[in-house]
């Protein structure tokens, strides 16, 4: 039987997830869509020819009798309430990143899930499903380059809107690295410092851009991540692992190489939707399959919490300029299964 999904938030990624659940993935049907801007919800339902009910309030989607599971793709600050609502209703929920705006908010979700007695939350951290990151992890885990000593990473967006501020470089953008790098290294973070180089002229008063985030893991690996969200030239995700005996790099997305007019060129993608398109498909198919099988196995509420503990320290480091400690509590037995 098809899993009946309710989607809360029909903006950029909400539309994408509804499209993939409808046209690409197997085993699910979108039966309810909500958006505070009702026109967004109506437009996607009509564009895809869905027979889905449109709701003004996301909590009504959670309560709807015909909705088995939720996808939360509304703005970041709304995630916590919708995820807690889904847990309360006993319905599995795929929540886009960040799970909540603070570690405290994520902890409330972790506590509610533990109280519910079974995993009900998958966080939309898609990078661990990306073939490139998986290949990089295989190399690290095989020991081929020895222990990872340093990582040099970059997260570059061509541009962002006027409402994007300095803190969002951490809570909305770096949060992907904060999740994927602890997975990649099988390690957790110990401290962080944030530095601001000369700002690009393409930013505005409320956004310091670019930023350099320097993390140290518990095992002593040093990581630098450049976040540059107005880089203009493309959507570019880089990750280089320097090991004791070699270097491993995240593969570039495949692209035809051209020799033309005295130039050697390959295209750089410009849109996050294209850069991780397969990973989004695989993460959501996994969610659908796991809900049907009765056991969620993807990025957990604990992973959302761990990333937010680090994000909180990064925000503090943005303000202080000092080295800030990152203290992740011990993982509860519930998440060791
Ligand atoms: P967007 O602004 O294009 O869409 C968000 C939609 O949510 C808007 O249509 C807005 O009206 C709606 N909304 C806001 N509050 C709501 C509420 N209380 N109830 C119902 N609808 C509400 O933003 P975008 O880019 O689609 O991002 C949505 C979420 O997905 C964000 O949390 C973002 O961090 C995350 N995201 C994740 C990505 C990933 O790579 N995993 C990529 C892009 C976004
Ligand atoms: C956006 O919300 C995403 O999640 C994208 O993957 C990221 O590159 C971008 O910086 C975020 O704002």
TrEMBL record:
Reaction(s) catalysed by this chain's protein: myo-inositol + NAD(+) = scyllo-inosose + NADH + H(+)
Keyword NAD: yes
EC number from the UniProt entry: 1.1.1.18
Boundaries of every Gfo/Idh/MocA-like oxidoreductase C-terminal domain copy: 137-322
Gene3D superfamilies reported in the protein's UniProt record: Dihydrodipicolinate Reductase, domain 2, NAD(P)-binding Rossmann-like Domain
A molecular function GO annotation: inositol 2-dehydrogenase (NAD+) activity
Keywords of the record: NAD, Oxidoreductase
Family, as annotated: Belongs to the Gfo/Idh/MocA family.
Assembly notes: Homotetramer.
Function field: Involved in the oxidation of myo-inositol (MI) to 2-keto-myo-inositol (2KMI or 2-inosose).
UniProt protein name: Inositol 2-dehydrogenase
Organism (species): Cronobacter turicensis (strain DSM 18703 / CCUG 55852 / LMG 23827 / z3032)
Gene: iolG
């Amino acid at each position: 039987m098809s899993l009946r999904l309710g989607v809360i938030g029909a903006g950029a990624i909400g539309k994408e997830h509804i499209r993939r659940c409808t046209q690409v993935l197997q085993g699910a049907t979108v039966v309810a869509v909500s958006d505070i801007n009702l026109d967004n919800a109506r437009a996607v339902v009509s564009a895809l020819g869905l027979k889905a009910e449109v709701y003004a309030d996301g909590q009504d989607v959670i309560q709807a009798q015909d909705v088995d599971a939720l996808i939360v793709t509304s703005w970041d600050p709304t995630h916590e309430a919708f995820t807690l609502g889904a847990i309360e209703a006993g319905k599995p929920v795929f929540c886009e990143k960040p799970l909540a705006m603070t570690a405290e908010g994520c902890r409330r979700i972790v506590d509610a899930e533990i109280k519910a007695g079974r995993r009900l939350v998958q966080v939309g951290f898609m990078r661990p499903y990306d073939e490139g990151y998986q290949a990089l992890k295989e190399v690290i885990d095989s020991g081929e380059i020895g222990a990872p000593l340093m990582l040099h990473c970059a997260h570059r967006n061509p541009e962002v809107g006027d409402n994007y501020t300095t803190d969002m470089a951490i809570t909305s953008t770096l949060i992907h690295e904060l999740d994927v790098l602890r997975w990649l290294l099988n390690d957790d973070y110990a401290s962080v410092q944030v530095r601001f180089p000369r700002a690009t002229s393409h930013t505005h008063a409320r956004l310091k851009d670019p930023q350099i985030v320097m993390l140290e893991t518990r095992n002593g690996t040093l990581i630098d991540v450049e976040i540059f969200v107005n880089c203009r030239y493309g959507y570019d995700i880089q990750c280089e692992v320097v090991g004791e005996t070699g270097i491993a790099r995240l593969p570039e997305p495949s692209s035809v190489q051209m020799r033309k007019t005295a130039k050697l060129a390959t295209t750089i993608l410009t849109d996050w939707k294209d850069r991780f398109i397969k990973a989004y498909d695989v993460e959501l198919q996994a969610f659908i399959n796991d809900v049907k099988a009765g056991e969620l196995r993807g990025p957990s509420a604990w992973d959302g919490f761990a990333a937010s503990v680090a994000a909180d320290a990064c925000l503090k480091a943005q303000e202080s300029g000092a080295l800030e400690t990152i203290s992740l509590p011990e993982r509860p037995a519930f998440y060791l299964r």
